[in-house]
Structure formats: structure tokens, C-alpha cells
Amino acid sequence: MILFIGKRLGSAILVMFAISVMVFLIFFATPGVDPAARIAGRGASPEVLAQVQKTFGFDQPLPVRYGLMMDHLFIKQDLTSYVNVGEKVVPQIVQATPVTLSLVLGAAVIWIVLGLGGGLLATRFRGTFVDPLIMIVGIAAVSMPAYWVGEVVNLITQDKLHSTVFSWVPSLGYAPISDPVQWAAHLVFPWLTLALLYGGIYARVLRAELVTAMSEDYVRTGRAKGLSERRILWRHALRGSLSPVVSLFGLDFGSLVGGSALLTEVVFGLPGIGKLTWDSLQNLDLPVIMACVLYSAFFVVAANAVVDLLYAVIDPRVRHA
Amino acid sequence: MPEPQIEETSAALLEVDDLRVSFRTRQGAVGAVNGLSFSVGKGEVLGVVGESGSGKSMAMYSMMGLLADPNVTVTGSARFRGQELIGMPPKRLNRLRGNDIAMIFQDPMTALTPVYTVGWQIVEQIRTHTDLSREDAWARAVELLDEVGIPDPQRRARSYPHEFSGGMRQRVMIAMSLACNPALLIADEPTTALDVTTQRQILELIRKLQARYGSSVILITHDMGVISEIADRVIVMYAGRAIEEGDRSEVVRRPRHPYTWGLLGAIPRPERRKLPLATIPGLPPKPTVTTVGCAFAPRCPFVMDKCRTILPPLEASGADIDHLDACLLPGGAEREAIRKEVL
Amino acid sequence: MSQAVSEDSPAPAPRSIGPWRAGLGQLLRNPVAVTSFVVLLLIVVVCLAAPIYAGDIAHTNAFQSSVTATTLIDGHRIAVLQQNKSGLGLGVVPIGPTWNFGGYFLGADSQGRDVFARLLYGGRTTLLIGFVSAVACCVLGAIVGLIAGYFGGVVDWILSRLLDLIWAFPVYLLAISLSVVLLTNGLRIGPIDIEPDNLLLPIMIITLIYVPYVARPLRGQVLSLKGREFIKASIGLGAGDWRILRREVLRNILPTVIVFIPLMTALNMLTESALSFLSIGVQPPNASWGTIINDGLDLLYTRPAVALAPGIMLVITAVAFNLLGDSVRDALDPKAKLRGSI
Asked: N or C: which end of chain C has fewer CB within 10 A?
């Protein structure tokens, strides 16, 4: 098991390195693009341009430039924005992190509960209306743009029904967790927007896995042992079916942090890393975009590694692979 | 046995009468088991033999309530110690299953839940049916693993199924099935998925434990060789019906049904190795096709016109009144003479 | 239990139908598949008719800002951008839906452009990008999967690591990185010169980020095919690599590739719209459903139709593609496990 942890963490670090090289190459070595001018921003003065040249070492070979960028990003953490002159990038990211984490973790809890509940229900009531219902929600979930659903939710809760049912919904934005009630009130619709869709997918995946599991030989063994159907479903079938759900969770958690969460933050005006990325996209503030991309990508890789370790705890077969 | 049959069955542990299993399919109802009757005495080893699709496993699963499919209809009667199993509510059935009647299955690779240690799974079995504490149950599990010949049972109890070989896994299954001293053990093709040397070891283990625990055993197999090693009595099934039944030595030495001749001819024997291996021509009938008359008629080398219209009853046709067969060929010594020509 | 019995019937099958014909037959009998297909066909036809609608029916230019445009409502000529009457009365508000196909059926956007005409043009763009990039993903994914899986060794190692890397990189972050660099200056490598507003750029970006979705499962499939008897037999008979690849391997993975196309189209359309919504996808003057939703963001509470209509179209189209994909999978390759459709 220790060997497995070591191997998994080692490969995560390798992936992080590869991703940082890839980002570096995209931003600094795309043919036909002058990175210094791009970083300095539109209409930058020659002095600023010269400063950018120096900070990022554009007169030096590529590996040195890579080292310099990593140094500014992760060790000195003194990368500055040239569009918003003098603004340090890393503190902005640090400030935005709790917002994104609040959004993603809260949504994840809701969607796991919905997914597990829906999957178990659909298996228990196979052949009734629950089944097609979950299938429809699952299909809709992969077909709906999260940002658009967010807009529709806003339209209803902030405008159409704001004077009646949803008068308790605060205006768009974020409240720190130090006031838990306000925090939750601000986040509840962003959470639900993300979680309803993902919950549908998870219910569908889990149902498919459970139905397969319930026709496995070990379920027959369980019945022959005299176990109750409930125990067979919960202790035997569910346990084996969780592995694919957990690995899917790793993937989705990643894609969420790096994607849907970004869109959701934009729509709900949550000042997280996604919103920060979006704002810098609007004025092409390259250092900020780069930093956001790298920090989020590293976070995603780390989260995936953690999920894989969790996977190994659930399914002993993985440890020996 | 010299006693009249009626008294023998009353002493039986399991009595099956006119068991029928049918599936509802798009082509209509399909009979997998078409009126099977037999009984198992205390401490007896009954071998049930037949090709795949002959309904032998279906019959056992239907008795045990393991055919949860809503498209399956089970009728007839199966009484275990006088309690009717068919239609028994799940709660009561669960008290019997694993406790009084245990089962082991064909493929030990998939029959154990992959995500729990084997010790955990045996403890689960014990604690479902007894009040033993976790520690006592664990000690008992280790004891059982030792008994079925798993080396270093203390440590192996903490291993997961995938860490065992096929034969070892089947030993674990046997240990688990014996955990509650069942009166009846149903073994569904327990050796089919194993290699030849392991097969022999597992069979010997079953026989040894059967002797020690005094359990009755129903051994389902398609392999006449397995039957001839271990069974006291044999039922040969074809197309959902018993077509021959009798003591092992009788059925193996003096089989009376042409299908059994074919089965026995399909076993390679050293003294006949110069001859090509015998096979039964053709295939078992599709269960969707309802046959009038003997189901084996299309493949039978001795088929007569009446075979296609009359369903032969299962009855004694020779000197031994306990040796039954369902065939319209002439009985007695005449049948013996026909057999000697082919086998 | 019926397997052993029914599997090998001695009589020759009465009429043998190829797997493709059988699959097609099953699709045609599947009401979900047929409905999805008809809906998609309808959407495609209507979107293709965008220039006809804009030119001959609504007489409008969907790409030109026209703040002084007017339209006829109940015989009155009305400006499409009107002075804001609520609040402080600052700025202008575009007119809402007229529900009249003669013009501004769904109202105007903040630049006075006909939203319905833009919706049709946007559909063309979104469908085009979604479909072309899906086909590109499948072709590229199949090629990479075939080569990596069939030849193995170093080639496989390099290709697999590359795929792993793209796979591990969160989709939108990779797309943002590529877009932000490519979409301001366009792409210039030697003789290749692609302008920033060229639709090829979003197509290329989306294709690149989703290639692993197709290539990885196909590689696995090729690997397992390679171990199967009939491929071994072909190798044993001395067939050349290309012949085996073409005649045996490709033929066997083709159903999976086909199944991927509608599913990837749905996924890629949604990605395109998200990128366009973030203003790093389709660039003006082109419109796509994503850019229109973006246009509608500021008008959400006053003129919700601008954001709602393209979103609804997007959902309907994506649902239809996903349902069609599911049905195609059931018909051709029921064992395929594809993420995104499940």
C-alpha cells in the first residue's frame, strides 16, 4: 500500500511537471506570437516591455525562461500583472481559493448524496417510473450548459419570483464562511445548479453498475448464504459498484474545478478562481490567466491522486495492479 | 435397499415432486425443468448429471429461491425436512439458506465478493445464522479454512479472493458453506472451472468433509467421471427431465438409457484408447420447441416410430427395481444385449 | 442455460444479415432514435436556411450593428432600440419578441440586431463546429488509437503519455490556454496563416482537447483485438501489418468510432458554446449559440429571450444527439463504455 501511495504521488508530480511545461510552451513558444508584447498588455510603453523582457528572461534560452516563470509563480510568488499595474497575482489567487472550494465541495456533497440515493432507489425500484426518470435526468445533465442553467436559475430567483418565493435569496455574490447562514444562502443555488446535473449522471452510472453487480455470481452466493436483500445490496453490490463512481468523481471534480465551476462562478458572480480567470480573459491579463491555469491544473492533478488513493482503499484489487 | 419405496422417502431429507420451471420469453413459455421428482436421504451423495441446458442447475436454483426473475414460474413441490421450499417467504427461506442448506458454485473466481477478505465473508455467513461474537466467529473461520486445507489459515483469512488460486478459492467456498454445519450441501459443478489435479483434490475434500459432517450432498455435474468417483446415487437429466436414476454402480456399470450410454461413451477410457472418442450426434433440443414423445428421439440411434409420439415414463425396466429409466426400448436382458453392442 | 442449446443450431441460418444492416434495422425500429434524428434534421434544415430567412423574409443583416433600425408592429413603425423608461431612464432597451416572423421574432439584442436571425446563423456555426470537430476527433482518435494499440512498444508509450497528459489537463483550462494565445493573433506557422476569426481555430482547439476521449478507449480495444484468435491467425498466415489493420482491426473498431460521432458532437457543441460564452471561442463577426447567450447575459432581466432561446436550442440539440448516440450504441456496439454518455 505504501508502495502504491509512493507510485501514485510520484506520477502526480510528473504530470504536474509535464503540464507546467505544456502551459509554458503554449504561452511562450507558440509560433507567430510575441509573448513579451502579450504579457505587457495592449499599448504598453517601451519601458514596460523592457521590464517584461527582463523579468521573464526573453533573451535567455527556453529552459532558463521556464525556470524563471516557475520561480515567479511558485517560489518567489511575485508575479505581477501589467494590465492592472503592480497587482501581485498569487495573493489574488490565494484570496479567490476559498470561494471556489466552497462552491465545488458543497456541490460535490449534494451531488454525491443525490447520485447515491438516486442510484440505489432506481435499483430498488427497477422497472418502475423511477428508472426512466433517472435516465432522463442523466441525459439532460450531459446536454445542458451549466452556465445557461445558472442564468435561468438567476432569472427565476433574482427576478421573476424574487418578490414572492425566493425573497430570501441574497443578491449575487459571495459571503465568507464566518457567517455560515449568509455563506450558505449565497451558495445554495450555485450548489444546486452544479449538483442537480451531476447528481443525475451519478445516479445513472451507479444504477448501471448496481444492476450489473446484482447479476454477479457473488450476489447469488450472498443469497445462498441466507443474507437479506438489503444487506446484499448495501454491503456487497454497492461496495463493488462504488469504484467506478469514485474514479468518475475524480475526473468530474477535476473538470469541475477547471471548467463548469468557472462558468458557474461567472454566472453567479462568485469571486473565485474561475471568475478571476474570466475577468483576466476579458482584458487579456496573461500573467493572471497563466497563474490561474497552472494553480487550478495542479489542484486538479492533486485531487485526482487523492481520489485514486481512495479508490485503492475501496477496491483492494487496484493496489496490486 | 430392500424396504418399499414409500418408507424410504419419508425418511428423506429433501423430497422433490413434479418440479417445473418455466421462463416467459418472447417466443412463449419455455420449460427448463419439466416435472422432476427425486429425493435425497440423510448422508447420501446424489449425483445429478446432464449436458449444459438439461435443467439440472435450474432445478436446484428454483428450490433455493435463487431465480429472482419475474419471468420465471416455478411449480411443484420441494420439501426439506417436511417444509415446503417452493413459495416459502424470503425471511423464512433466508433462515434455511446458508444454515441448513448450503451451496457452492461453479466458478470460484466470481462467487466471492472481491472487495472483502475471505475471513470477513465466512464471518458474515456465521454471524448471519448464529449469535457468535465477532472474535469467536473469526476463530471459527480460521478453523474452517484450516480444515479445508488452506495453509497458514491465520494469515490467509485476511487475504482477498483475488489473492487465491482457483482451487484455493473453491476451498474457501467449501469452508464457507460448511460454516453452519448444513444438513444439505448443493454443489453446482464445483470442479468444472478447475484443472484436473485440482478437481480430484476438491472432490476428495468434499467426500472427506461429507463423511465428517454427515451432510447430504447433491452434486451437479456434466462429467460422468466426477459422478463415478463420489456419488451414492445418480440421476441423469435430459431436456429438463430425469431419464435414468439408480445406484451409482448400477448406472455406471449397467446403464439402461441410450443417452447415458452416450455420456459414458464420451469418457475416454484407457482400454478403449485405440477407438475414436465416442460422441453423441446432434444437439440437445431447443427449450423453445415443445417436443411430443421422447426428447432424445432426434439424436437416438435406436429411435423407433413410437418414440416420437409417446413420452416414456421413468420406471424400472430391469432386475433392479431401484434402477429407473425412461426409454421405450425392450427391457430386461434384451436392453443389456443392445447396450453391449455399443458400449 | 439456453446458450449452449441455441448457440449452434445445426441448420444453416435462414437468412444472414450483416451486423450493419441489423444495426440499421434496429435503429429504424427504435422510436427514440427516429425522433431524435427527425428533430436534428429539422434543426439543421432551419439553420441552413438562415441566409434565406435574413435576406428574403426579415430583410435584416444579422451581423451588422443597427442602432437606428425600425420594425413594423401592428402597422406602426417602431425603433428596435428604445429609450429606457424605467429607473433613471438611462441607456436603451432593445425591443422584446414581436412573435412575427417578418422581423425581430425574438426581439433585438443590445446592438439592434435581429435575435432570431442570429439564432439561425449561430446554429449553423455551433452545429458546424460541433460536427466537424467530432468527426475530426474520431478520425484522429482512431488513427492514434490504432497505431498505439497495434504497434505497441515505444510508439505506444509516447502516444499514450501524450494522451495521458492532455487527459490530465482540465478541459477548459487547456482550451483557455490555447484560445487566449491563438485567438488574438491567429495561427501562423510557415505557410499556414489562420486569421483569429476563422472557425478553424475553435475546431482545432476542441478537437485537440477531446482526442484522448476517443483515442484511449479505441487503443484499449485494439490491444484486446490483437490478442484475439482471428488477428493472430492473420498474422500467422503472413498478412502484412497494413492489411491486418485495414481488413481486420479497423473493421472491428469501426462501430465504436461511429457510436462516438453523435456523442462527441453533443459534447463538442457544448464546449464550443461554453468557450464562446467566455469570449474565447467563436469570434465576431461570427455568431454561435454561445456568443448569443453571452450577448443575453446583460439583458437577462429585461429581455430574457435573448439568452433563453439559444440555450433551449442548445439543450434540445444536445439531448437529441445524446439520445441518438445512445441508440446507435445499443444497435451497433452495446458493450461500449463511453464516458459522457454513460
From this structure: N
